[in-house]
Amino acid sequence: FMYHAHVGVQLDRGLYGPLIVEPRNEPLAYDGEYTLMLDDWRDGVDDHADHGTPAGEGVAQPDLDPTDVVSFGGRAYPLLLINGRPPDDPPVLQARPGDRLRLRVMNIAADTGFRFAVAGHRLTVTHSDGMPVEPVTVDALRLGMGERYDVLVDAVQPGGAWQVGVEPEGRAGWGRAVLRYSGSGSSGPPAVAERPVELDGRLLQYADLLAVEPLQLPAGAPDRLYDLTLTGTQIGGQSYPDANPLPVTEGEWVRITMRNTSSKWHPMHLHGHHFQVLAPGGRGPVKDTVAVPARGGEVTFDFLAGNPGRWLFHCHNHHHMEDGMLRLVEYVRR
Ligand SMILES: [Cu+2]
Fold it and tell me: Ligand 1 centroid to 326 CA: how many Å?
């Protein structure tokens, strides 16, 4: 998990950190673990008097399916950081040949979706947003803001130093860490800009993820349905604070369908609950943040209303949220 400020630009200026909940009995076996927090950085670029003005449309990606194009506000984020470090001073992960590493990869950026890969190595995904999934092995991850994946990486190379590459979706930029094998001190690190070919390899999709512990939904149909259109500033036609709460009642099975009519990709996050992404077979991943593709993308999730209170439901693009892309989920009596 991640903890972070939820006021103004505090998150964007670095008021965040990882929160790791260890299970009483760890079912996975591994030799070392690292937490990698991916961030975009603009502090010092402006005076933070507001949340910035869009600076352009970013890099076009014409050969992608238009419903899969990830585009963002285009604000200037000149640095991409991993654990607070820029590409020319990268964090170093240590491994011995044959080790199995656990990486906890988290996107805490304000305005940037990331693709993540490790040169010469594959990624076996074991958890999505802290919740276990059936292990699936891929070359690259895509993380919307707020999303987290745990992956196992087998140190299958005989030695050397390998690029851990982070590329923003839909615009220019570059971040990196280095995976260094023990005894490889004489081999220099990869060039700053060396790009793992794995970034273009098999990319994790939500459809690859099967929940190990699906929600215990009752038989029948949901008790409450919401059908919400997403734009860059509104959820269901309303923009916070001029927005009605979305009522739910304790004990209900709630289903929310989101349809994104905008040209921006929206990683949507619900506080206080895990939800299950609707998928054929009923075992979609249990998450708390899910990206809804631009230009007609649609995602449906279910949750059990078991945590009374008033909870934020918002886009995890900081600027979209500041523009009002936030609603309250509010528990009411039946
Ligand atoms: Cu958004």
Answer: 9
Instruction: Identify the pLDDT of residue 333.
Output: 92
Integer Cα distance of 143 and 128 in angstroms: 10
| Spatial distance between the Cα atoms of 202 and 183, rounded to a whole number of angstroms | 30
For residue 118, how far is its CA from the centre of ligand 1 (angstroms)?
Answer: 28
Q: What whole-number percentage of the chain has pLDDT above 70?
A: 90
CA of 216 to the centre of ligand 1 (A): 29
Question: What local confidence, expressed as pLDDT, does residue 68 receive?
Answer: 35
204 within domain boundaries: yes
Distance of CA 268 to the CA centre of its chain: 10
Q: How far apart are the C-alpha atoms of 131 and 286, rounded to whole Å? A: 6
CATH of the domain at 311: 2.60.40.420
200 with 252, same domain? Answer: no
In a domain, 323, yes or no: yes
In a domain, 214, yes or no: no
Nearest to 260 by CA among 290, 287, 282: 290
- Residue-wise pLDDT for 194-249, tens only, equals 999 999 999 999 999 999 999 999 999 999 999 999 998 899 999 999 999 999 99
Handedness of CA 100, 20, 331, 243 (dihedral sign): negative
Ligand 1 center–CA 232 separation, angstroms: 6
* Centroid of ligand 1 to alpha carbon of 304 (angstroms): 24
Residues of the chain with pLDDT under 50: 47-50, 52-73
Give pLDDT tens digits for 148-179.
999 999 999 999 999 999 999 888 899 999 99
Residue 188 CA to ligand 1 center (angstroms) comes to: 40
Residue span of the structural domain in which 189 resides: 2-208
**Are 197 and 104 within one domain?**
yes
Is residue 213 in a domain? no
Number of domains in the chain: 2
Same domain, 171 and 255: no
